[in-house]
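Methods: example folding runs. The two proteins below were folded one after another, and each record is reproduced exactly as written to the output file, sequence line first and structure-token line second.
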Amino acid sequence: MKKFSHWFCFGLSLVLLSACPKPKEGAQTLTLPDGGKIVYETKGSGDATLLFIHCWSCNRRYWDSAMAELSKNYRVVALDLRGHGESDRGRKDLKVADLAQDVDALIKQLKLNNVVLVGSSMGGSISLAAAKDNPGTVVGVVCVDTLQNVEIKTPEDLREGFLKSLEQDFRAGLAKFMPMVFAKDTDPKLIAWAVEQASKTDPQAAVSLIKDLFSLDLASWMSAVKVPIRCLNSDSSPPLGLKTSVEVNRKYADFDVVELQGSGHLPQLERPEEFNRKLRETVEGLVKK
């Protein structure tokens, strides 16, 4: 009888485990509260979830290497922001805060918890807003080549010149700008791929977002985040060449930085192995807190 009871309990356990729903993998579509649609994909499983948020005029493909590596230990999620990749386009007045609301909707729809937001460039700003809106759910923020100094604004002449080139000819403006953000030794094929991906972005959304980015008060956004903020930043951060000011940023948040030597603005593409290793180390420090 005891032997039967043992095998019965074992079999019942297997049935219950198999009945537990597993997160769906692959590309899926989420309908947002306003009716818009965004495409996202998930991989892996684990006690923590990494939610990858790409940069301006990029898409979720920029995270392919990081997703493949980090999914070995974590559940990983990447999305195409509205106006980018395969997600909806057509909104003329997109703001960074709108994209943060979309991220918030994704977190709630997927019932994510113990989340580390990983945001590249503009994705870092989005991560700050989404972290503020999800206390208790988001346990840390990792920003990639951004937040070098939240008290510094982009010089006005650079802002105006960049916007003018985008408004005159979006694709030509991107073709001129994108090579400037990579390290000098970057494979030209990678740069060409990045330009091609960027050219798929909704021009109206891109221009609206870059205008909004230039106006953000990132110091106040950072102050509102009550979880650790970590940056993986280039040591040269082209095209502006800014160094990360830990002292300034620590006035506003629990902040620290890891500098990536010899990388440009997109280390997840330029130095994927080093980037993935540093990202893993950073995430491990956040989820163990």
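Second run, written to the same file directly after the first:
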Amino acid sequence: MAGNEEFAEVLLYSDDSATRAALMAAIGRRPAKDVAPIRWDETATAAAVVAKVEAKKYDLLVLDGEAAKEGGMS
């Protein structure tokens, strides 16, 4: 954390790096003045999503609905 400024911790999952880049570019580091700056964490596999969520608290998960299926219902 930089100084006293808080960050919104966001995990972004897509198996397509272009999709991840486009989404981060569209939203940016600070989407509005009244919103904390975003600290992006990105991953390309469902297994990595599970590992990261088990290891760290995120404020928001952005999960690609078009990514490769991973168990559960489809």
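Comment on the second run: Residues 47 and 70 are 9 Å apart (CA to CA).
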